[in-house]
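hey so i finally got around to running the thing on that chain from the lab meeting. sorry it took forever, my laptop kept dying and i had to restart like 3 times. anyway pasting the input first so we r on the same page abt which one it is
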Amino acid sequence: KVYGFDGLFPRTIRDLTIRSGKVSRLYIRGNRVLYYRPVGYFFLVVTVLFIFMGLLGVNVTEYMKAAAGGMGVQQARAGSGQERLTTSILQVASENLKWVSFMMVPFQAFCSRYLFFRKSGLNFLEHNVLPLYLQGHLYWLMVIEVIYFKWSGHALSQAVTVVMLLYYGFPYADLIDYQSRIKAFLKGVGVCIAAQVILMMVFFIVLVVLILTLPEFREMVRP
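ok and heres what got predicted. didnt touch it at all, straight out
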């Protein structure tokens, strides 16, 4: 019963797959017994993913390189400073994957609360519930992608991105009830896209500061 396999765990997986918005709405309204708490569920599924990758012998950094390539990111010339910089970034990201993903949540909550669903009546902390559940549940999709990567050496990045965008749209259509489901769906997709854009902008600013202040970073970006 430590991990709720008496019914709590399978119920959480089932309902987050088909009605994530409903799960989040019940949690926000005070129901704490039907489902895993969002933070606990997030870290539980992340742990399962890393155990699974370890059992398969999948290198996280190589997997992330394949995922970036699958999204059309151009690979730097072998042995160049750009390749060393890219490898260093991916290495840090792979070692802190759960925290990188966890860091996305407040950006999503910000976009939801202050950009897309300002009239929802939910405060900022309540807007974190659904993104936490979604980010955690999407790691099951990564488990499938890791299996494919182990078998083929390639990542299903574009397909995963499409599924992720759709998966963000439908829950917001369930959670938000003051506007049409279609509008809430489109705004939910917007939450996902906007949060990633803002996070990438923050990352880019940090990278520029590092390049301007640290000689080893400037050396890496030279042609």
